[in-house]
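Q: Here's a chain of 108 amino acids. Please give me its 3D structure as tokens.
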Amino acid sequence: GAWATSADQCAKVFTRNGRTNQLGFTRFPGIYGSGFIAEADRLKGKFENCQIKSRKDDDRTINLVVACANGIMLSKVQFFLKIVDDNTISRQFPGIDGMEVDYHRCQI
């Protein structure tokens, strides 16, 4: 599904394209906030494509390790997704207390 930092900006961050109505990003989504598309084994940003390498669910927190490519370099990233409610998650950064980014489910 599609997740954006601002629920009221979903239509400005995401779009459906082509005959298959495939979910994608608008031309300049960063103007309206950030977002990502979650698939079974991938997370996609406008400029990043990440494959989920490992996942551990612990009650309402998901620990993810992803390998990402952005056209210039490859990187491996670990982060936590805390489930706030059915339509909100919070990305937490290991080792940086108090830093988190909320994402809201988009109904596109």
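Q: Can you summarize the key feature?
A: The first helix runs from residue 10 to 13.
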